[in-house]
Amino acid sequence: MSKKNDVPLPEVNIGMVGHVDHGKTTLVAALSGVWTDRHSEELKRGISIRLGYADTTFRRCPEDGEYTVERVCPKHNVETEILRTVSFVDSPGHETLMATMLSGAALMDGAVLVIAANEKCPRPQTKEHLMALNIIGVDKIVIAQNKIEIVSKERVLENYREIQEFIKGTVAEDAPIIPISAQQRVNIDVLIEAIEERIPTPERDLKSPPLLLVARSFDVNKPGTSPEKLVGGVLGGSLARGKIRVGDEIEVRPGIKDDRGNWNPVTSEVTSIMASGKNVEEATPGGLVGISTRLDPRLTKSDALSGNVLGHPDKLPDTLMDFTMEVKLLEKVVGTEEEIVVEKIKMNEPLMLSVGTATTLGVVTSARDDVIEVKLKRPVCAEEGWNVAVSRRIGSRWRLIGAGTIK
Ligand SMILES: Nc1nc2c(ncn2[C@@H]2O[C@H](COP(=O)(O)OP(=O)(O)OP(=O)(O)O)[C@@H](O)[C@H]2O)c(=O)[nH]1
């Protein structure tokens, strides 16, 4: 695995999506050497719960042009050439964790849809994750057909045809399907090649004021640290545009709720920036960064500020307590085994809305055809034109039912 000190910083965020247990985390580990989600609760339940992040540098052997993540080609014993560094956003595949997946999707420039060959395709979250990518506007997709070493060749081919059938007419229609074994590291070179071809680094807007979508927030102090030694709150996320520098004054919106129920932005200063395990002076779009601030760490602990946006004071989008959106409903609910028809959105109906990395509950205050007004329980900071993933409570779960655009 490549060492981190002399490789470029990540320039693109690649999502790892798909049904639970199909091998997303194992594939991120095969590509980066990092197990993204092995903290106690996840180990106990055996599934990913939070978003995981890991970086890796794609390289090529100068002798045979083979793609690799190794610094030295094991076959030719020569130093490999650096192509680019990418950040993986590893999403949880369990059906109860769609809100987390959607918040991760807001950061993705492209995605690898992992589909296990030993199960019939499509499984419910294979469909729901692909639909989510479509709604959020992620259309650069590579399919990894995983676990091929535990099934017969016939089954690999049959499953391959199931995948081809499934992606017809979807946003992944032209996506390459790469048979792999994440666990045995089979065909990883071909997968990297497909990612390199399929998921280019997008053009970045570096001139506009910065807008960082906050996906995690932390109190990094050990319990019992004395007040004078406390380190300020840390916010993790990815820049959608612009640059953030150490020393910048920043604002975080919507911020926090006061005793009277009003939401107030919080302001602070950037004290340091971590990207790819390194301290940097400046963060740019592409890759996940950790922004250390002078904020009271109690405000940032346990992801309390995830779903906020961070930028320069007075240069962020408005905080919205309600908004109007144009909604396109799906025909059927895709995230369940049994696909039921999606009924029209009704007045007073509660909806779960995913906007950027934020998840909020909205109550419908007006429903005219495809134009829906919602009043939010918790405000979001967003702009006209942003995509909204709309979910409805069906049985005991929130299910994706449509795509909205803020008007
Ligand atoms: N045989 C085989 N098992 C695999 C392969 N890839 C992953 N697995 C196994 O499949 C199980 C699930 O793998 P994970 O990587 O945790 O799956 P995941 O998609 O990240 O799961 P969630 O994040 O919880 O949705 C683990 O027991 C892995 O060891 C593979 O290529 N072959």
From TrEMBL:
It catalyses: GTP + H2O = GDP + phosphate + H(+). It is an enzyme of class 3 (hydrolase). GO terms for cellular component: cytosol. Signal peptide: none annotated. Its cofactor is Mg(2+). Mg(2+) 2 binds at residues 21, 46. InterPro entries: EFTu-like_2 (IPR004161), eIF2G (IPR050543), eIF2g_C (IPR015256), eIF2g_dom_2 (IPR044127), eIF2g_GTP-bd (IPR044128), P-loop_NTPase (IPR027417), Small_GTP-bd (IPR005225), T_Tr_GTP-bd_dom (IPR000795). This is Translation initiation factor 2 subunit gamma. It comes from Archaeoglobus sulfaticallidus PM70-1. The lineage of its organism: Archaea, Methanobacteriati, Methanobacteriota, Archaeoglobi, Archaeoglobales.
